[in-house]
Amino acid sequence: MHSYKKILLAAAATLAFGTSAVAADKLKIGTEGAYPPFNLIDASGQVGGFDVEIGQALCAKMKAECEVVTSDWDGIIPALNAKKFDFLIASMSITDERKQAVDFTNPYYTNKLQFIAPKSADFKTDKASLKGKVIGAQRATIAGTWLEDNMGGVVDVKLYDTQENAYLDLASGRVDGVLADTFVNWEWLKSDAGKDFEFKGDPVFDNDKIGIAVRKGDALRERLNKALEEIVADGTYKKINDKYFPFSIY
Predict the structure, then answer these.
(1) Domain spanning 2-110+209-244: which superfamily?
(2) DSSP letter at 101?
(3) How many whole angstroms separate alpha carbon 178 and alpha carbon 9?
(4) Which PROSITE patterns does its entry note (predicted)?
């Protein structure tokens, strides 16, 4: 009886270990799904984009089975901390404020902010020229924060829940210009909706480091950093980059 019990315990331990080993390698990737070309939901309902493909390449290196979960931008950090997903790859800038809530990996690309406005508009980006203009940006982004901090008393800042809504108002003339990530603006300017618009002035903020967020103290951060080094070294990163951009964003 005693030995039989021992065998059962051993079997139970193996089973428990087996389950946890499998569970540890099932991860959920969190993203927004409304920020092309970085993350978007296509016509068939599939989540894709640069962020998502990088996330999947990292999962392949970590030998993890991953599924993608989307969340509204405004609540995306709380969703990570509520364990709706394991890591967050959504073109999120690494800021001191966000570092209080989450841990970040090494940057996986560097971004800058730039204004866009109608081609026909005489739109200069110095304070005197911008005075009284209505400028759109996405809420809770570096662009929105930069406008409020640097142009608060100069322009009328309009903040939107999604980047797409800021572009809709620009296209319909409800705002004079939009400040957003250069690469996201670049994508929109190539579209039919953006064909009458262009970049105005030089980038106003050009060292915005973009990282992957994990819960505070999560060892997954180190695994992601290692996987990121590997995909950069073996050319996987460049392959994904070249699919979306004719220039390196790393």
Answers:
(1) Periplasmic binding protein-like II (3.40.190.10)
(2) T
(3) 64
(4) SBP_BACTERIAL_3 (PS01039)
